[in-house]
Write a structure and sequence with these properties.
The complex is a heterodimer of chains A (313) and B (622).
Chain A lengths: L1 H27 L5 H6 L5 H11 L5 H13 L13 H37 L1 H16 L2 H15 L15 H35 L2 H8 L4 H38 L5 H11 L2 H29 L1 H5 L1
Helix pairs in contact in A: 1-12, 5-6, 5-8, 5-10, 5-12, 6-8, 7-8, 7-10, 8-10, 10-11, 10-12, 11-12
Chain B lengths: L1 H5 L1 H4 L10 H9 L1 H18 L1 H4 L31 H37 L1 H15 L3 H12 L3 H28 L2 H8 L4 H37 L10 H10 L6 H28 L39 E11 L5 E12 L4 E5 L6 H9 L7 E9 L2 E4 L8 H4 L7 E4 L13 H13 L3 H14 L5 H6 L7 H13 L5 E5 L7 H18 L2 E6 L2 H7 L2 E6 L2 E7 H6 L4 H11 L4 H7 L4 H17 L1
Parallel strand pairs in B: 3-8, 3-9, 6-7, 7-8
Antiparallel strand pairs in B: 1-2, 1-4, 4-5, 9-10
Helix pairs in contact in B: 3-13, 4-6, 4-13, 6-7, 6-9, 6-11, 8-9, 9-11, 11-12, 11-13, 12-13, 16-17, 17-19, 19-20
The chains are: A mainly alpha (313), B alpha/beta (622).
Chain lengths: 313, 622
C-alpha cells in the first residue's frame, strides 16, 4: 500500500514538472512585449530594456525556467509583474472561494447523482426515463449557459438571489450562502444529470453480474445486495466520473465566477492570461494541477480500498 | 445529409467505399430522437453553408442609429447594443461555431486514432509513452490550458480549437486502443495474419470496422463539448472580437441583460439545440448499432390479459393439487416467455412437467438454448426481470411458488425458501463470487442471515464446510479473495455455500462445465458424496449424458423449450425412445455400449444397479 501511494505521488510530481515546463515553454513566446505593456506606452526604450533585465526576459528559455522552478521549489512563486502582489498570496486569497464552489458542488452532485442513478437502475419505469431525458438536457446546456439562465430568471427577473456576489472578509455566512447558491446550482444541475446517467449504467452493469444472482439464491435481501455489493462494485466507475467532473469544473468555474463576479481563481486566471502576467499564470496552473493530482490520488486510493485486486497489485 | 456531415471524420479514416450501412442510417431516422437530432443538425448546417444568402447584413455591419431594437421587418430578430442585426450574426455564428467544432474533432481524431491504433496493435514502448502523455493531458483542466494558449498565441478561435482537439484526443486514443487490443488476439485476426495479410490490411479491414461505431459516437460528443467550451471562451471575452460567434453574442447579450434579455435567448437556444442534437445523435447511433430494438417493459398484466394470468398476489394461498404435496418440487406444464417489441411473447420453455422427491437426483439434459437453465431459474425464482410465466405452475414442498394463474414467480413466497431450503450451484465459479469480498465473508453472511446464528458460530461452520468440500487449508481460503483461488477451488466454495444452510433441494446449473477436465471428476464426486450424505434433492442441469449417468436417478431431456422424454436414467440410457435423445446419446457415447460409459465414469455396474433398484423402490412407494 505504501509503495502504491509512493508510486502515485512520484508520477504526480513528474506530471507536475512536465506541465510546468510545457506551460512555461508556451508562455515564453508570448512575453516579447511584456515590459512595454507593463510600463505603458510613454516609457523610454532604456526603461523598457531595464525592466526586461529586471524581469529576466533577456535570458534564454532554459535558464529562465530553471530559475523560476528553483524559486518555486523553495516555495517562492514570485510576484505579479503588474501589481507586484506576491503570487502565493494572490492565490491563497482566491483559492478558498473557488474550492468552496467546486467542492460544495461535487458533494451535492455525488449525493444526488448516486441516489438518482441507483433509483433509475433499480426501479426503472418513469424515474429511469426522467434520468435519461435529463442527461440529454444537462449535456445540451453548458453550465455557464445554465448560470446565465439562472441569473436572468432567478436574480434579475424575480430577484430571489443576488445577481453578483458580495463576498467580503467581513460578510456573514448568510451572505456567503446567498452568493454561492446560484453558482453552485448552475454547476450541480449540469453535473448531476450526466453523473446520474453514468452511475445508472454502472449499477445496471453490476446488477446483471452472475454474483448478484448467486447472492439472491443465498437468501440475502435485495437491500443488502444493493447497498453492500452492487454499490461497492459500481463505486469505482462512479468515482471516475466524479473525478473527471471535478477536473472539468476547475476549468468551468472560471466562466461561472465571471458571471457571478466571484473573486475566485477564475478572475485571476483570466486577467493574468490576457495580460501575460507569467508568474501569476504559472501560479494558477501549478495550483490547479496540484489540486487535480491530489484528487486523482484520492480516487486511486479509494478505488484500491474498494477493489482488492488493485490493492494487491 | 447531416449524418455525412457529422460522420465526415469517419469516412476519411478508413473503411474505403463503405460509409455507414444504410440500415443503420434508416434506424437512426426511425428513432424519433434520432430524427429530431438529424433535423436540427441539418438545419444548422444549412444555415452555416448558406449564411451569405440567408443573412441580410454583414455580421459586423452596425446601424448605430438603431441599437437594441425589437424585431421588425428589416431586423427579424432585432438588433444588438451597437445596432448589428441579430439574425445575421446568428447565421454567421453558426458557420464559425460548427467549423470550429469540426476542426476540434478532426484534430482529436487525427491524433487519437493513429496513436490508439499503434499503441493497441503493436503495444510495447509506444504504448507506455502514449499512456503517460494521456495521463498528463487528462490531468489538465481544459479552460486553464486554453487561457494559457491564448496568452501565448493570441485570440484565435482556430488555434484554441486545435489546442482543445489535442486535449480531447485521449478520448479517441483510449477507445481505439481498447478496441484494437480486444480484436488483436481474435482468431480471425490471427487467421488473417497467417494468411499473409499485411498489418495495414488487417487494420483497415478488421480493426476499423470495430472502432468505427464508437468513434462516430465520440465525435458527436466531442463536437458538442467543443461548441460548449468555445462559446464559453468567447463569452469570457477572450475570443476574436471581429468574428461573430454564438459565444460572443451571448457575452454581448449578458452585458445588456437589464436592457434586453432577449439578446441572450437566441444564442443560448442555438447552442443548446445544437449540442442537444449532437448528444441525441450520438445516442441514436449507439442504439442503432447495438441493435437495441427496445423491448417495451411490459406493464404488469398487460401482456397477460390475453391468457388470463396476473401478477402473483402476496397472500395467495391456493391449495396445491391433492395427492402431490409429498413431492419436493413439482413443475406442471410450465411455460416461460419473453415479451417482444411487437407485443408477442417468445416462449423459451413450453409445457414442461416433472417432479423431484427428497433425496432424489433429477438431471435435465439438453443442448444450449433448450430451456433447461430457464426451467431451473424458474424454480429458484431468479429469472430475468422481463421474463414471464405464461403457463403452468411450480410447487415446492406442497406450496405454490408459481400458482396456476401467476404471470411471474412470487418473490415474497420464494424468499421463504430460497437460500434456506432451495440453494443453487452456478456454472461459472469465478463470476459468481463478489470480487470485492473475502470468501469467508461470502460464506458467513448468508448463514448469519438465514440461520440467525452469530458471526463466530457462522465462521466456525464456514471453516468446517470448507474442510468438508475438500479444501486443504480452510483458514487460508477463508481469508482469500476470489481472485486468489483457482476455478476448481472457487467451485468448491460455491458448493460449500450451497449446502451451508442445510437445504432440501440443490439446483446445480452445469456445475462442471467451466472447470478443467481433471477437476470436473472431483467436483462431481463431491456433489454425489454430499447428496448421499445430506439426502437432499438435486436438480442437475447439464448437456453431458456422462454426468447424468454418473449422478442422476431420473432424467428429463429437453429440446427447443419442450420436454421430449423423461424417466429413469437406466431406462433412457438403455432404451431411448425419442429420436432426439437417441441422437444426443449417440453423439455422447460414440457408438459404445452405455455400460462402458457408466464404468468409465467411475460407477461400477453393481452400484448403478443398486441405485436403479432404489429409485424403482421410490417409484413403487408413490
Amino acid at each position: 500500500m505504501v509503495t502504491f501511494i509512493l508510486r502515485k505521488v512520484a508520477s504526480g510530481i513528474v506530471v507536475l514538472a512536465a506541465i510546468s515546463f510545457l506551460t512555461y515553454f508556451l508562455l515564453y513566446y508570448s512575453s516579447a512585449n511584456i515590459a512595454r505593456s507593463i510600463l505603458g506606452e510613454f516609457a523610454t526604450p532604456e526603461q523598457v530594456a531595464a525592466k526586461e533585465i529586471e524581469l529576466g526576459l533577456d535570458q534564454p528559455l532554459l535558464p529562465r525556467f530553471f530559475g523560476w522552478a528553483g524559486n518555486a521549489l523553495s516555495g517562492d512563486l514570485g510576484t505579479s509583474w503588474f501589481n507586484s502582489e506576491p503570487v502565493a498570496r494572490a492565490l491563497m486569497t482566491r483559492l478558498p472561494i473557488t474550492l468552496t464552489v467546486v467542492v460544495v458542488s461535487i458533494i451535492f452532485i455525488a449525493i444526488i447523482a448516486t441516489a438518482l442513478g441507483m433509483a433509475a437502475a433499480v426501479k426503472r419505469g418513469w424515474i429511469d426515463r426522467v434520468v435519461q431525458g435529463a442527461a440529454v438536457v444537462g449535456d445540451a446546456i453548458p453550465s455557464f449557459v445554465m448560470a446565465i439562465i439562472l441569473v436572468t430568471l432567478l436574480a434579475i427577473q424575480w430577484q430571489l438571489f443576488p445577481a453578483t456576489s458580495s463576498i467580503a472578509p467581513d460578510s456573514g455566512s448568510a451572505a456567503w450562502v446567498a452568493s454561492l447558491t446560484l453558482p453552485v446550482l448552475a454547476i450541480v444541475i449540469n453535473g448531476v444529470t450526466s453523473a446520474a446517467q453514468q452511475i445508472r449504467s454502472a449499477v445496471i452493469k453490476q446488477l446483471e453480474k452472475d454474483y448478484v444472482r448467486t447472492l439472491r439464491s443465498r437468501g440475502i435481501s435485495e437491500r443488502e445486495i444493493l447497498f453492500k455489493h452492487v454499490l461497492r462494485s459500481a463505486a469505482p466507475a462512479g468515482l471516475t466520473v466524479l473525478s473527471l467532473q471535478f477536473i472539468g469544473m476547475l476549468g468551468g468555474v472560471v466562466i461561472i465566477e465571471q458571471i457571478f463576479a466571484l473573486p475566485g481563481m477564475g478572475a485571476l486566471a483570466v486577467t493574468s492570461t490576457t495580460m501575460g502576467d507569467i508568474p501569476l499564470v504559472m501560479g494558477v496552473v501549478i495550483y490547479t494541477v496540484i489540486i487535480v493530482i491530489i484528487v486523482n490520488l484520492l480516487v486511486d486510493l479509494i478505488n484500491g480500498w474498494l477493489n482488492p485486486k488493485v490493492r494487491v497489485s | 445529409m447531416s449524418e455525412i456531415e457529422v460522420l465526415a471524420d469517419q469516412s476519411d479514416i478508413g473503411q474505403k467505399g463503405t460509409v455507414v450501412r444504410s440500415h443503420v442510417i434508416k434506424k437512426i431516422l426511425r428513432n424519433p430522437m434520432g430524427f429530431i437530432a438529424v433535423v436540427v443538425l441539418v438545419f444548422m448546417v444549412l444555415l452555416a453553408i448558406f449564411a451569405n444568402l440567408l443573412a441580410p447584413f454583414d455580421a459586423n455591419f452596425a446601424n448605430i442609429g438603431k441599437t437594441l431594437a425589437s424585431p421588425d421587418a428589416t431586423n427579424i430578430l432585432g438588433t444588438d447594443s451597437v445596432g448589428r442585426d441579430v439574425w445575421s450574426r446568428l447565421v454567421f455564428g453558426a458557420r464559425t461555431t460548427l467549423l470550429s467544432a469540426l476542426l476540434c474533432a478532426a484534430v482529436a481524431v487525427g491524433i487519437g486514432l493513429p496513436a490508439g491504433l499503434i499503441a493497441g496493435y503493436y503495444a510495447g514502448k509506444f504504448d507506455g509513452v502514449a499512456a503517460w502523455v494521456v495521463n498528463i493531458l487528462m490531468a489538465l483542466p481544459g479552460i486553464i490550458v486554453l487561457l494559457t494558449v491564448r496568452a501565448a498565441f493570441g485570440p484565435s478561435v482556430w488555434i484554441s480549437m486545435i489546442a482543445f482537439g489535442v486535449l480531447l484526443s485521449p478520448g479517441y486514443f483510449r477507445l481505439t486502443r481498447t478496441a484494437v487490443q480486444s480484436v488483436r488476439n481474435e482468431l480471425y485476426v490471427d487467421a488473417a495474419r497467417v494468411a499473409g495479410l499485411s498489418d495495414w490490411a488487417i487494420i483497415s479491414r478488421h480493426i476499423f470496422s470495430v472502432v468505427r461505431a464508437p468513434i462516430i459516437i465520440q465525435t458527436a460528443i466531442v463536437c458538442g463539448v467543443a461548441i460548449s467550451i468555445q462559446s464559453g471562451l468567447e463569452f469570457l471575452g477572450l475570443g476574436d472580437p471581429s468574428v461573430a460567434t454564438w459565444g460572443v453574442m451571448l457575452s454581448e447579450g449578458f452585458k445588456n441583460v437589464y436592457l434586453n434579455p432577449s439578446l441572450l435567448l437566441w444564442p443560448a437556444l442555438a447552442i443548446g439545440a445544437t449540442i442537444g442534437a449532437l448528444v441525441l445523435l450520438g445516442n441514436a447511433v449507439r442504439d442503432a448499432l447495438e441493435d437495441a430494438e427496445k423491448i417495451k417493459p411490459a406493464k404488469r398484466g398487460s401482456v397477460q390479459a390475453s391468457n388470463g394470468r396476473t401478477a402473483p398476489g402476496r397472500a395467495q394461498t391456493t391449495a396445491v393439487e391433492a395427492g402431490t404435496e409429498h413431492h419436493l418440487v413439482k413443475v406442471s406444464n410450465l411455460g416461460v416467455g419473453y415479451p417482444q417489441a411487437d407485443g408477442s411473447i417468445k416462449k423459451v420453455v413450453d409445457n414442461v412437467s416433472f417432479h423431484v422427491d427428497r433425496g432424489e437426483v433429477l438431471g435435465i439434459v439438453g443442448e444450449s438454448g433448450s430451456g433447461k437453465s430457464q426451467t431451473a431459474f424458474s424454480i429458484l425464482g431468479l429469472l430475468p426481470e422481463n421474463a414471464r410465466i405464461v403457463a403452468g405452475s411450480i410447487q415446492f414442498d406442497g406450496n405454490y411458488t408459481v400458482a396456476p394463474t401467476d404471470d411471474r414467480v412470487s418473490q415474497s413466497r420464494l424468499s421463504a425458501f430460497r437460500g434456506k431450503r432451495i440453494s443453487y450451484i452456478p456454472q461459472e465459479p469465478m463470476s459468481n463470487l463478489d470480487p470485492a469480498f473475502t470468501i469467508g465473508y461470502q460464506l458467513v453472511t448468508p448463514m448469519m442471515r438465514v440461520l440467525k446464528i452469530s458471526k463466530s458460530e457462522a465462521t466456525e461452520r464456514a471453516l468446517a464446510l470448507l474442510d468438508d468440500v475438500g479444501i486443504r487449508f480452510p483458514e487460508k481460503t477463508f481469508d482469500a479473495y476470489p481472485h486468489e483461488v483457482s476455478g476448481g477451488m472457487a467451485q468448491r466454495v460455491l458448493i460449500a455455500g450451497a449446502i451451508s444452510c442445510e437445504p432440501d433441494l440443490i439446483i446445480a446449473d452445469e456445475p462442471t462445465t467451466a472447470l478443467d477436465v481433471t477437476v470436473q471428476a472431483d467436483v462431481l464426486d463431491l456433489i454425489r458424496d454430499l447428496q448421499k450424505r445430506l439426502n437432499v434433492g438435486v436438480i442437475l442441469v447439464t448437456h453431458n449424458f456422462g454426468v447424468v449417468a454418473d449422478l442422476c436417478d431420473r432424467v428429463a431431456v429437453m429440446q427447443d423449450g419442450r420436454m421430449v422424454e423423461e424417466g429413469n436414467v437406466r431406462d433412457i440410457l438403455r432404451n431411448p425412445k425419442d429420436p432426439y435423445t437417441q441422437k444426443l446419446l449417440g453423439s455422447m457415447l460414440e457408438g459404445k455400449e452405455p455400460m462402458t460409459m457408466l464404468v468409465s465414469a467411475g460407477v461400477t455396474a453393481a452400484e448403478a444397479a443398486a441405485r436403479d433398484d432404489e429409485s424403482d423402490e421410490k417409484e413403487t412407494l408413490q
